[in-house]
Design goal:
- By secondary structure, the chain is α/β, with parallel strands linked by helices.
- The protein folds into two domains: 131 residues, Rossmann fold, CATH 3.40.50.720; 212 residues, 2-Layer Sandwich (Dihydrodipicolinate Reductase, domain 2).
- The strands form two sheets. Strands 14-13-12-11-7-10-9-8-15 form a nine-stranded mixed β-sheet, with helices on one face. It has a six-stranded parallel β-sheet with strand order 3-2-1-4-5-6, with helices on both faces.
- The longest helix is centred in the last third of the chain and has 19 residues.
- It is globular and about 70 Å long.
- The model has no long low-confidence stretch (mean pLDDT 94).
- The structure holds nicotinamide-adenine-dinucleotide.
């Protein structure tokens, strides 16, 4: 079996991926690196992986084929370019970059290197996303009429680079499912910022807004709306996806782990208005598309029962980010093994991230309409 050697860099959230790479049948050697030496040591000891003392060491190691970056946001652009320029495939957590120029640099580095770039967007590999895609492809949903996304999360006391971050710079979780389901790309954005927050929070990024909301126009004519809050806004955590179809609609539950509402539109003959009915629906886990060795990570390895994966989904509540982690690893690894582009490549990742950057720019200009560049 063909195998690749991988380095995982940044082991905070990134630590979730170490064991998945270790168990993936197409991964050979795994190196890990975190600037915090104790964290690197913990992963070396816990999983028997090889530790490194710098990114440089990884980039100079000819035996490493691919690097997965899960480092702080301000480092993504520079580190991604360095990985690609070192002739290695690169996966990076969201957001791709924090400026349009950053996205352009990554796109150019990717094209020059001929290697793969993948933006590791969790919301595109959740079991909820797989389910809606299935509803769309089976015709159950009908035509998409409108899309909506949300990401409400309070970031107080997170690492300093988060403080005052423009909400739409990290709009990817709210924007990505809309772009992916639209079958198109976002071409134009109108954004607004709202509310006020502690003056200290406004300084780092010159951003006055705790909440941003934007309307997106897709190239195929569809429209969508996304709202993102980061500070001083009382709302339960939610990375929500809302898809309004001509036959059925999918609306995320109130909290992030709540089941969705499925609304069905039915004919009442010649009577005024169609009838609507709704149900709260359980969804299947989509673990079976993965190699057996990593299926359990869709629910968190302790909760997985291979004989009853559906029941274990309820116990594990999706293993963090709704089962997406092993799907992300699998897509990145298999795109390299199969010598093809990954699904969330520099173009899709650039549109998702770029639309958010333009939404913030529009908000700063009080709703001026902004064209999202093609990368
Ligand atoms: N759902 C998602 O997709 C999702 C969820 C959480 C975090 N993230 C992203 O993951 C990234 C990391 O998040 P986090 O919460 O772990 O952040 P964090 O800042 O808490 O931790 C980052 C880790 O990287 C290490 N680090 C810092 N600089 C480094 C460097 N130059 N080289 C190697 N390691 C370095 C730190 O010591 C730390 O252990 C962020 O960019 C965030 O946007 C994405």
């Amino acid at each position: 079996m063909k195998k690749i050697n991988v380095a995982l860099v940044g082991l905070g959230f990134g630590g979730c991926f170490a064991e998945i790479y270790k168990e993936h049948p197409n991964v050979g050697k795994i190196k890990v690196f975190d600037t915090n030496r104790n964290i690197t040591e913990t992963f070396v000891n816990r999983f028997g992986l090889e530790g490194c003392s710098s990114l440089e060491e990884i980039l100079n190691d000819d035996t490493i084929d691919a690097v997965h970056l899960v480092t702080p946001i301000p480092l993504h652009e520079e580190q991604t370019v360095r990985v690609l320029e070192a002739g290695k495939h690169c996966a990076c957590t969201v957001p791709m970059a924090t400026s349009l120029e950053g996205i352009r640099r990554i796109t150019e580095a990717k094209r020059r290197s001929g290697k793969n770039y993948m933006m590791m967007e969790t919301t595109l590999y959740t079991y909820q996303f797989f389910y809606v895609k299935q509803m769309l492809e089976s015709g159950e949903l009908g035509r998409i009429q409108f899309l909506r996304g949300s990401h409400y999360q309070d970031m107080s006391n997170w690492p300093s680079y988060w403080m005052g971050l423009p909400p739409m710079w990290y709009g990817t979780h709210a924007i990505a499912p809309m772009v992916a389901l639209s079958g198109s790309r976002i071409k134009r954005v109108v954004g607004f910022g709202s509310g006020s927050m502690d003056k200290e929070l406004t300084k780092q990024y010159n951003n006055p807004f705790p909440v941003e909301s934007a309307l997106f126009e897709f190239e195929n004519g569809l429209k969508g709306e996304a709202t993102r809050s980061l500070f001083e806004t009382a709302r339960m955590y939610q990375e929500g996806m809302f898809v309004y179809g001509s036959k059925q609609s999918f609306e995320w539950g109130f909290r992030d782990n709540d089941l969705p509402y499925i609304t069905t539109l039915g004919s009442t003959g010649n009577n005024r208005g169609a009838y609507t009915k709704y149900e709260i629906r359980e969804m299947p886990n989509f673990h079976s598309v993965l190699p057996p060795e990593i299926q359990r990570f869709t629910v968190g390895s302790d909760s997985f029962d291979p004989l009853n994966p559906q029941e274990s989904l309820k116990k594990g509540a999706g293993g963090g980010h709704h089962g997406s982690h092993p799907h992300l690893v699998h897509e990145f690894v298999m795109s390299i093994i199969e010598n093809r582009k990954p699904w969330i490549d520099e173009e899709l990742g650039g549109n998702i991230t770029g639309a958010g950057i333009c939404a913030h720019e529009s908000a700063l200009r009080n709703g001026e309409s902004i064209i999202v560049p093609v990368f």
